[in-house]
Amino acid sequence: MNRTEEETGQGGRGEPAPETAEASGHDALPEEQRRILRRAIRLEWISLACTAVAVTLEIAMAGQSQAMKAAWIEDALALLPPLAFLVAVRRIRRRPHAEFPYGHHRSIGVAHLVASVALLAMGTFLLIDSAITLIKVERPPVGLTIVAGHAIWSGWLMIAVLILALTPPLILGRMKKKLTEPLHDKVLYADADMNTADWSSSTASIVGVLGIGIGLWWFDSAAAILISFSILHDGGKNLRGALRGLTDGRARTYDDAEPHPLIGQIEERARDEDWVGDAVARVRDEGHVFHVEMFVVPGDGRAVTGAQCEDLRAALRDVDWKIHDVVIAPVAEIPSTQAFRG
Amino acid sequence: MSDRPIRRLPRGGRARGRSSGTGIPRRALPALLATGLLAGAATGCGAIPRDAQGPLARASGGTLRVGLTENPPWTEVAADGGVSGSEVDLVTGYAESIDAKIAWTIGSEGELARAMRDGKLDVVIGGLTRDTPYSTEIAPTRPYTEATADDGSTLKIAMGVRPGENALMVSLERYLAEQEGEL
Q: Transmembrane ranges (chain A) (predicted)?
């Protein structure tokens, strides 16, 4: 990992926001983040293309086979997160105006919701489909295929196809996950989870086919059920994160693991000002960037001027590029029902 | 969650999300299992695929239970109950190849499907096609030949095996492919 990426990581060691005060969407991101965003967009197009090819092949091969039908429905769900991401990054290009005074960053939150629901749907589908197979005691027949005059058990061919199918999501998912933290992009995070779901369910199918090979008919479904729990867990985690973000929960890290450390840092920065007696921030995640309301109590007997507030706004934005839309609210005391100390 | 203090990361540190160290990540388990299975399969757990309930092993040197539904020219039943037809010849040849005697059951396709579900049959013949409506009870083999139906459409002719008995299935499919000159 190069040095710049480490520096832009979590913990607020990032670049300050770009100069232009009206910046929105892609303009709100510093050069490094824009470069990462371009890379993410490229990865998502590749994802979309790979999945589209896989779904088309599976629909063509499906015929009567219930298993192949399940496979393409499952893969079609994997199209949703990249689509949501690409639509959202187009929308956040728009500047704020009278109808959308906060800009369009929240599109990222909506895309995160779409991606997490797709993930949950995939897990649910896999769980129910496999459970039904188990309950109905459907023993999968896997016979012989003849390739160029050689007889080969179809199971080996299935495994070969599955290995081919799981390679793109395995590689793409890892590449995406590396970008989620410096870009603070939760859609990308959910999509990387979707890639994980994709390749791990293919791995489960390989285990299942091998199980069938040694005469354990239930192995395929059992492996799929195990994997479906892990997918449901990821889907639930992402859904909770997406809902929390959209309902103005306190800003959290890119993986929703903990409150974002920048909140504490900007409060400290505000308290550093001579004229500030106390400061508590209310911060929500707009998608990539944060919306900050900083409640400020002036020090003893101090008067507050507009210029001081303006300077503080600029100073806070200099802490990190994610500190984007800042409102300074001078108050006599910190309103206990609106602002909470970390 | 929310009352947890904010954790500052050391410079250059990374949050969770990466499984470093020695613990086996949960998602690596299937891969490990697969490797284990492969290793197990390779080191003499017997040939792959194996049957779910072992009908091939039971029939070899013993009795192969064959259900037959009348469908000339594939299968015919004489007045005295004797059976003949191209599939009767094929399945008799197959039984000889695994040193098995045949126990015949004659009935409609639906009756044979029920018998198959109840575990009373190993193989069903009678000019079955790949798209048999009883595919839940009777797993069709790969088509060993083609025929033309009355309406001019092509029929892919197969035999039926109990689903999941993949050793029997592969063994029968291999025999049929050899007889038809595909192998």
A: 43-64, 70-89, 110-132, 152-172
